[in-house]
């Protein structure tokens, strides 16, 4: 079996966590996997060419993918989200006649801004693979087949954190575009910093906006995200944070931060929004917090009760291994690629 994967770029989260992690396991099962990243990556441009010419290069590289599919005898093609971020479905439509199966993988609310485009993509695809149930609910009336496969981690690459000390390091990781969610906690973290020995460690692509937290008295450490040391940087955390606003885009997130925290044996505290409430069993493998008082209470409970924290740590790691790991879901991808009903 031969499969072509069209991805956004080697360092985008959707590519790394929803495609590349599975490639070794799929190859072990005898699947010939050909991965074609956007060149340049979908949301980037070559500095020496500028955006418009870079987009032209990207378009030409995708036309090459269509030719490769036409003459390469691929059994299936997997499109990560969409080939281009605009309104075009030209490449997906051109690809469709040259593969036996076309699979669309969607892991967030990209369809909110382009509903007609994603309705067309769902119509072209044999199967839409969705990162959570809320996304699946959207595509159910649009697609012939919808399968839910959560965003997961390779737990073999996530060592469990063993030591906790002073200061207590609260951590947040993600794209800087999502930093406004973290900044909503500024008053809470400022009050905690006045009462407890804490540090906030932020791992992201940019640091703009963190001065607001520093002005509130929070000791902030910023680490620029690097894929080669990601787990080592996150292992500095003692409590992982995932605040969200209850809004359409946030409700469609797949909770990757929580799953990464779980994998490292770090207790997670999150807003009860979207997939978060399906991942976290409140008070067992993580904690949910809605109001400012909730956030203060649960963070202090984790800092002040080591036994409770360790119980949550262990349960989170088990959840990652059993429900949100590559090994737990590779069989489902195997079935999707072959056009079979995924095993439960």
Task: Please sum up the structure shown.
Helices cover 42% and strands 17% of the residues. By secondary structure, the protein is α/β, with parallel strands linked by helices. The mean pLDDT is 94.
The CATH topology of the largest domain is Rossmann fold
CATH class of the largest domain: Alpha Beta
- The succession of helices and strands, N to C, reads EHHEHEHEHEHEEHHEHEHEHHEHEHHH
Number of DSSP E strands: 12
Mean pLDDT: 94
CATH superfamily of the largest domain: Glycogen Phosphorylase B
Looking across the biggest beta sheet, what order are the strands in?
2-1-3-4-5-6
How would you explain this protein's 3D organization?
This protein is of the alpha/beta class. The chain has 2 domains: 2-152 and 326-338, Rossmann fold; 155-323, Rossmann fold (3-Layer(aba) Sandwich). Helices cover 42% and strands 17% of the residues. It has 16 helices and 12 strands. The protein has helices at residues 13-18, 23-28, 50-72, 90-95, 115-124, 133-139, 179-183, 186-195, 211-215, 230-234, 248-251, 256-263, 276-279, 292-304, 306-323, 326-338; strands spanning 2-7, 32-37, 76-80, 101-106, 127-130, 146-148, 168-173, 198-204, 220-224, 239-242, 268-270, 287-288. The strands form 2 sheets. Strands 2-1-3-4-5-6 form a 6-stranded parallel β-sheet, sandwiched between helices. Strands 9-8-7-10-11-12 form a 6-stranded parallel β-sheet, sandwiched between helices. α5 (115-124) links the parallel β4 and β5. α8 (186-195) runs parallel beside α14 (292-304) and α12 packs across α15. The longest helix is centred in the first third of the chain and has 23 residues, at 50-72. It is globular. The two termini are 23 Å apart. 41% of the residues are buried.
